[in-house]
Amino acid sequence: MDFLSDFLMRFLTQLQSPTLGFLIGGIVVASLGSRLSIPDAAYKFIVFMLLMKVGLTGGQGIRDSNLAEILLPAVFAVAIGILIVFIGRYTLCALPKVKVEDGIATAGLFGAVSGSTLAAALTILDVQGVSYEPWAAALYPFMDIPALVTAIVLASIYTKKQRDTAGGYPNEQPDTAGGYPNEQRITARGYPKRDTASKRVKIWPIVKESLQGSALSALLLGLALGLLTEPKSVYDTFYNPLFRGLLSVLMLVMGMEAASRLGELRKVGQWYAIYAFVAPLLHGFIAFGLGMIAHYITGFSLGGVAILAVIAASSSDISGPPTLRAGIPSANPSAYIGASTAVGTPVAIALGIPIFVGLAQALGG
Amino acid sequence: MDFLSDFLMRFLTQLQSPTLGFLIGGIVVASLGSRLSIPDAAYKFIVFMLLMKVGLTGGQGIRDSNLAEILLPAVFAVAIGILIVFIGRYTLCALPKVKVEDGIATAGLFGAVSGSTLAAALTILDVQGVSYEPWAAALYPFMDIPALVTAIVLASIYTKKQRDTAGGYPNEQPDTAGGYPNEQRITARGYPKRDTASKRVKIWPIVKESLQGSALSALLLGLALGLLTEPKSVYDTFYNPLFRGLLSVLMLVMGMEAASRLGELRKVGQWYAIYAFVAPLLHGFIAFGLGMIAHYITGFSLGGVAILAVIAASSSDISGPPTLRAGIPSANPSAYIGASTAVGTPVAIALGIPIFVGLAQALGG
Amino acid sequence: MDFLSDFLMRFLTQLQSPTLGFLIGGIVVASLGSRLSIPDAAYKFIVFMLLMKVGLTGGQGIRDSNLAEILLPAVFAVAIGILIVFIGRYTLCALPKVKVEDGIATAGLFGAVSGSTLAAALTILDVQGVSYEPWAAALYPFMDIPALVTAIVLASIYTKKQRDTAGGYPNEQPDTAGGYPNEQRITARGYPKRDTASKRVKIWPIVKESLQGSALSALLLGLALGLLTEPKSVYDTFYNPLFRGLLSVLMLVMGMEAASRLGELRKVGQWYAIYAFVAPLLHGFIAFGLGMIAHYITGFSLGGVAILAVIAASSSDISGPPTLRAGIPSANPSAYIGASTAVGTPVAIALGIPIFVGLAQALGG
Amino acid sequence: MTQQASKLVIVTEKLLLKQVAKIIEEAGATGYTVVDAGGKGSRNVRSSGGPTVSETDSNIKFEVLVPTREMAVKISDEVASQFFDDYSGIAYLCDVMEVLHAHKF
Amino acid sequence: MTQQASKLVIVTEKLLLKQVAKIIEEAGATGYTVVDAGGKGSRNVRSSGGPTVSETDSNIKFEVLVPTREMAVKISDEVASQFFDDYSGIAYLCDVMEVLHAHKF
Amino acid sequence: MTQQASKLVIVTEKLLLKQVAKIIEEAGATGYTVVDAGGKGSRNVRSSGGPTVSETDSNIKFEVLVPTREMAVKISDEVASQFFDDYSGIAYLCDVMEVLHAHKF
Ligand SMILES: Nc1ncnc2c1ncn2[C@@H]1O[C@H](COP(=O)(O)O)[C@@H](O)[C@H]1O
Ligand SMILES: Nc1ncnc2c1ncn2[C@@H]1O[C@H](COP(=O)(O)O)[C@@H](O)[C@H]1O
Ligand SMILES: Nc1ncnc2c1ncn2[C@@H]1O[C@H](COP(=O)(O)O)[C@@H](O)[C@H]1O
Ligand code: NA
Ligand code: NA
Ligand code: NA
Q1: What is the DSSP code (8-state) at residue B200?
Q2: Which one of C44, C221, C228 has the shortest CB-CB distance to B29?
Q3: What residues of chain B have any CB closer than 8 angstroms to a CB in chain D?
Q4: Three-state secondary structure call for residue F32
Q5: In sequence order, what DSSP letters do the residues of C184-220 get, joined into one string?
Q6: Cα(A92)–Cα(A107) distance, rounded to whole angstroms?
Q7: How many CB atoms lie within 10 A of CB C29?
Q8: Alpha carbons A208 and A205: distance in angstroms, whole number
Q9: Residue whose C-alpha is closest to residue F86's, from F24, F55, F54, F43
Q10: Fewer beta carbons within 10 angstroms: which end of chain E, N or C?
Q11: Chain A residues with CB-CB distance to B under 8 A?
Q12: Is residue C262 packed enough to be buried (19+ CB in 10 Å), middle (13-18) or exposed (0-12)?
């Protein structure tokens, strides 16, 4: 009883944070049809700044850390990333009107990680004075990459099986949200269908593609610079003080995005919306549970457990979508981006972060 | 005598402020043909930051305010916005070589409000230690929207009357600055002239259009966030400390703009230049007078009176022009934008702000 | 011995500065094929901010300075700018496979000045507590403009001479890196060859072109504002605190640039790479020597000597290239931009700055 | 099988983006492509607002593949009659030799 | 001497920029021009990711001058067969009256 | 009444924007449209300076409706003779079926 009331109180306090205020403000402003917009260049630069800061913090912190500690949480992060995709594969994809490729891609995006959601969680932890291992943010790639790789591999296994059984073109599945009738298509020569039967899925190119994406590159560059150089002067005068403010602008953009993607989500059916609402919390709780195991075994901090849970709850917004577009080209991006941006991310930020941080605080006493 | 010398001294001090220095620097640099430019994305982001800061300040301040106080200044703001357009309608439009639609649109733009001029005034007031009601910046929309609505309504009444009397096409007015000879026009079918006779001017769409514009949206969003959330942490680390610096960059842009618009203004005739020089000061003095009435009746602060005067003196630079372009399409944008940007805004900032702030200080003792 | 070990130690410390870390980080990231990118608008805005800060610092400092002191260093700066171009003209251009116009343009770019390299040097000097005259940054244009003018003049003298001797089209030089076979060229009429024989090179337009460029404009505007207005409030809250952080982002961009230009450099031959490696250090030592003369004659500070050396070692990255493209159109930009960006700038920053700052420190005791 | 078509090009003020797009869709075109453009014409004296110092394009260029000249004229007449009195703009028709590949045409 | 040519136009998703460019080069074209574009087609329901709120173009338009219809068909067939099942895109061919000036054609 | 015309297209380096525009105006064209473009040609080895890492277009594409082939050749000859020795660029002429609407042509 005491635990619950404690948790609820902390949860409510966090609802008043500016982070959340800007997110909701963005949703409201865009829903009202405002022409307010943050220039694309500013958005991209802000994302760079935030990930660089998260990386620098982590890199500087790792120096004084016992790196053996990271092992178990990292293994758990990998496991969660893969697990999330399998969960999606056998729940979301089984639902009516959900095309299998679309479902797998969506699960992959929810398994992958959002740098902005992570940044928001770190801010809340700092504000609330919950301590965590400095390397905790470095768990990001350990979950992100396996989730994307798993999704792409599962999708191509599926596509191949389809082609082998149907003996033909995999898209001839009827009645799907993302399918297009081919009748009116014009072709100069009736171009030959791609012969992808012989293609085997290679994993290294997908990993490389992820690592080369702008989000992971910025994070890893920050980690390396934090670890190898003495960035304290720029960190203290630039990356750190601007962090919260830039995050507030980013939250505004994400709110506006959520509102403007709602229409796309509506087109692909309500099952995506339900998945997108439930999944972040479910994934977060699974991760929280595994994190607690690490807490008891290796002394992983409660703040670190909350970070692991938020990473799991988040869904990728920057580098996930292009990776999936290239890796599972037959999946409909409106399905996975709509589900993630319009519902998944707001749920992860507005509910997930307060819940998991609140839990960590309540458990920590 | 004492009052006058006091005022003059304060006026001179304010002429040395960096705000003004950057404005003049921009004018000089652009006049000398420099290729220096601030990227469009940076300009837009700076405007967003400034309006958000002004809104947040206002919103946080309103909480502790007695909202009844705002009533009289707000009513005055509305009255001034409307009055400015009528003044323009019966002075500027009566001048030779001024097309009536162009004159009305110009008056509308001078009635509307410039967020950057307002931001500059708030900085000077803070530097000079003149206190004002935190909600004073919230007077912005009360003057801005009525001015634009009045201008659009007046223009369409005029257009309609013209059509009814001339029995034909309203543009057949001879010898106007913005008129184009139609002789060489090519048309595929001789398209039918628009039948706008039956159209009535609807006010709500114009108000909505204004509120949805990027400037007012940012300001109102900031107000709401300041009022409803606890943005102190981001305000203190981000929006507030960066305010002055960003304003200096914006002043530079406005100076460069002023210089580059001078050519356009020259094409539309000297009457616009004269109006644009006199109007900001005239409008400011009217507003200052009404503000003093509120000062005596409801105790509206002298700083607030100066803000009301600056709002009146300013002419819209961000959201006014597109609203007018859509609302009074037959008016020549070179006329109103040229008048406002090339002359009106520099006068409002370089003369208006020092005069009205100086007056408030001198009156306050 | 003592001097040398002292110098070496200081040199090594400076290798760990974040400035250098970000530069190398950028090279590594781009070499690994990352898609990380800083938006163009952000890059341009950062450059503006840095040059404005350098200018403001200089302008505020000049007020309290004895301007007579600047004379000798300024004369030396002009001399070095011209000398560098002549050195290139008689070394680089004499090498095999180096087209004369290309060599002159490259020498011009290495004579001109890089604002970002200068900014990096000022940071290091501040961090190391080495004092310098506040007006030292104002030496920039005194070297930059003469170098560009000299290069353009030398190139057109050469072109003219070629045309006079060959009696024809100057590009008919065989076997050059930048030459294109004209055989396949299509022309509607066989357009007449330009008759440029009568054109004399005018110097003022080149000077004006340089001064109007975005880099010099920003620097000079900052100088003027620092000298004539009271920018302390915006300087202390904005331009100064953000300086180091923005510089770190810029270094990242320059590193990425260096990596991506390496390919271009490779195409134009290894002589450019050798020149680009040796020239910054050679030019820096010459300038250091001349600076020491000023040190003994007029008391020019050792920090100022280091700045003069860095200015000489740097090669222009922002406004130099377009000026040369317009001024020596027949030179191949891949040659000069490749040499400067891919090798010259990294060498100037990574070796030049630590060497010259370390020398100044070691000499200063 | 490929198909003959014409290409309607409309260059006008950026402000009209949504309204022109709507006219094109309502006329039954299968799609359109639009790019930012700058330009100069008889009305170039008219300013588009927004800072010119920060280099912005103020025009847009629509390209619409249409199956018949009729549809092109329908679209351009509608656009011209609604907007070309007050806004600058130009509309012209080009020949397309053949549509090689399209999802729907 | 000027020369006859055709112009192949391909509008497709920005993501494919490098891949389409490679196909064009491998087909032996002497060059290409590419611009950022927005647009709407039968697949406009497909999102391109990236914030729409911050106005971005998500298409690209290639224009390739080709000496023969064969080369155009070769390029567009290759692009269509590799990408048009999964990505939105259109390809069409225009007549070029003459190439007036070119460094190489 | 509509009117026949040709469309002259010039793709060249961004640096030449103002100079090419001036040539077009002096040749008597009623206007022009210009878009930012990227591209590759025979001279792509030539760099345009400015950071490539921050993705920038370095070409521009002019489109000019001209009433006669003569005017097009006049413009493109002038541009080519002044710039195409030292700068990359291409110029070609397309047929315009008809100008449907224009303020002045
Ligand atoms: N002759 C032309 N060739 C190409 N584009 C033109 C031409 N005339 C006008 N335009 C374009 O159409 C726009 C509007 O023209 P106007 O209505 O005459 O001001 C201009 O800004 C140009 O982009
Ligand atoms: N009728 C059309 N006219 C011009 N562009 C089109 C047309 N149809 C499609 N497009 C362009 O081709 C892209 C892809 O079309 P689709 O594959 O049908 O979605 C669209 O986003 C448009 O830019
Ligand atoms: N075959 C082509 N098709 C389309 N555009 C071309 C072609 N060749 C060249 N270009 C364009 O013209 C520019 C200059 O070409 P070049 O002078 O050959 O380097 C290139 O950057 C391309 O944008
Ligand atoms: Na996740
Ligand atoms: Na006003
Ligand atoms: Na130099």
Answers
A1: P
A2: C221
A3: 30, 37-40, 42-43, 171, 178, 180, 187-189, 191-194, 253, 256-257, 260-261, 264, 267, 321-322, 325-326, 329-330, 332-334, 337-338
A4: strand
A5: T-EESS-PPPP--TTPPPPHHHHHHHHHHSHHHHHHH
A6: 8
A7: 24
A8: 5
A9: F43
A10: N
A11: 16-18, 20-22, 25, 29, 32-42, 127, 241-242, 244-248, 252
A12: middle
pLDDT in tens, B12-58: 776 678 888 999 999 999 999 999 999 989 999 999 999 999 999 99
Per-residue pLDDT of chain A (365 residues; tens, 9 = 90+): 577 787 788 777 766 788 889 999 999 999 999 999 999 899 999 999 999 999 999 999 888 788 788 999 999 999 999 999 999 999 999 998 899 999 999 999 999 999 999 999 999 999 889 999 989 999 999 999 999 999 999 999 998 888 777 655 444 443 333 334 444 567 665 555 555 545 677 888 888 888 998 889 999 999 999 998 889 989 999 999 999 999 999 999 999 989 988 888 888 888 999 999 999 999 999 999 999 999 999 999 999 999 999 999 999 988 898 889 889 989 988 899 999 999 999 999 999 999 999 999 989 87
Which listed ligand is nearest to C315 at the C-alpha? Answer: 6
Is D59's Cβ below 8 Å from some Cβ in B? no
8 Å CB contact between F29 and F102: no
Write out the H or E segment, with its range, that includes residue D98: strand D89-102
Distance CA A152, CA A111 (A): 12
| Interatomic CA distance for residues A54 and F29, integer angstroms | 56
**CA-to-CA separations, D5 to D72, E89, F65, in angstroms, rounded:** 10, 17, 21
The answer to whether residue E38 neighbours chain A at the CB level (below 8 Å) is: no
Total count of domains within chain C? 1
Q: Which atom of ligand 1 is nearest to the CA of F65?
A: 3
Asked if residue B349 lies in contact with residue B9, where contact means CB atoms within 8 angstroms, the answer is no
Q: What crossing angle do the helices spanning B115-128 and B240-268 adopt, rounded to 10°?
A: 130
Q: If you search the block for the tokens 């634009």, which residue do you land on?
A: B148
- Nearest residue in D to A180, CA atom: D103
Hey, which bits of chain C come out as E strands? 186-187
Q: Each residue of C208-249: pLDDT tens digit?
A: 888 998 889 999 999 999 998 889 989 999 999 999 999 999
* Ligand 2 geometric centre to CA of E39 (Å): 6
Closest to C212 (Cβ–Cβ): which among B21, B33, B241? B33
Where do we find the tokens 């940054």? C137
Read off the tokens for B118.
Answer: 């307002």
Q: Which residues line ligand 2 (CB under 6 A)?
A: D 29-33, 63-65, 103-104; E 11, 39-44, 59, 88-90
Output the CA torsion sign for B63, B64, B66, B71. Answer: negative
User: Can you give the residue range of the structural domain that contains C110?
Assistant: 2-364
Query: Ligand 1: which of D35, D40, D63 to mutate, most ligand atoms within 8 Å of CB?
Result: D40
- Residue in chain C lying closest to A318 (CA): C36
Closest by CA position to B114, among listed B215, B243, B8: B215
User: Whole-prediction pTM value?
Assistant: 0.92
- Shortest distance, CA F103 to any CA of chain E (angstroms): 26
- CB nearest F101 (choices: D6, D57, D90): D90
Q: Do D100 and E91 touch (CB under 8 A)?
A: yes
Our CA angle for C325, C331, C336, nearest 5°, is: 80
Say which CATH number the domain at A44 has: 1.20.1530
Q: What is the dihedral of CA B4, B9, B12, B13, to 10 degrees?
A: -140
Q: Closest-CA residue in chain C for B33?
A: C212
Among positive and negative, which fits the CA dihedral B64, B69, B74, B80?
A: negative
Two structure tokens written together for A169: 């073109």
